[in-house]
């Protein structure tokens, strides 16, 4: 499982993050504020085959053919599709929170402020109570829908297999489908899932975000503190 997760993370970083300005160029439209008209224009550009980045398209085809079995395990199979040039870097970070006798596994999803920056803007933090330190979330974050951020993943628990799909738009709207539960993330970008023995799950939605803390460790400590208080009652 850990080897598989590492492989997916390498795919995300080397193929789908588009960190290199030599591979993806930025046109004047993409430097402007994203309005509905600009998004409409971007959609038209993606429909223009003369503007497709053939190098990236070929790269995606080769990657899919090599890792097809892995991609098929995700909620939405990542078949390659052509897109115009873009300049965008995405981010994901798996993490663990342990409090008392409980073990939570999480995934942080976001984007870099710009492709040459080390600063991350978090768009989603998904946390699942697993009580199993060996379980690792499997996550695929995709930059190809630029300027939209998209991601998907799995939490393979002993008795439940949870799948999720996430999207964020440039105007600030984002949503998460976890199983078939829809979360509107305008009301909180931290989601905590509590699986139950009868194959159901409970959940929390919080307005806490790593963006509001100096370090991700500070954010984790805040969540850990909240979870400790919750399960002591």
Notes on the structure:
The protein has about 230 residues and is an alpha+beta fold. The chain has a domain at about 90-230. It has 4 helices and 10 strands. It has helices at about 1-15, 35-45, 55-70, 215-230, and strands at about 90-100, 100-110, 120-130, 140, 150-155, 160-170, 175-180, 180-185, 190-195, 200-205. It has a 5-stranded mixed beta sheet. A hairpin with a 2-residue loop joins β1 and β2 (about 100-110). The longest helix is centred in the N-terminal third of the chain and has 18 residues, at about 55-70. About 30% of the residues are buried. Mean pLDDT is about 90; it is low at about 1-30.
Number of helices: 4
Helicity range = 25-40%
Name the shape in a single word. Answer: globular
Q: Roughly how many Å apart are the termini?
A: 34 Å
Largest sheet, spatial ordering of strands: 1-2-3-9-10
Identify the quaternary structure here: single chain
Main β-sheet, in a few words?
Answer: 5 strands, mixed
Count of DSSP strands: 10
Radius of gyration: 18 Å
Strand content: 25-35%
User: What would you call the structural class?
Assistant: alpha+beta
The overall average pLDDT, rounded, is 88
Give the low-pLDDT segments.
1-31
Order of SSEs, N→C? HHHEEEEEEEEEEH
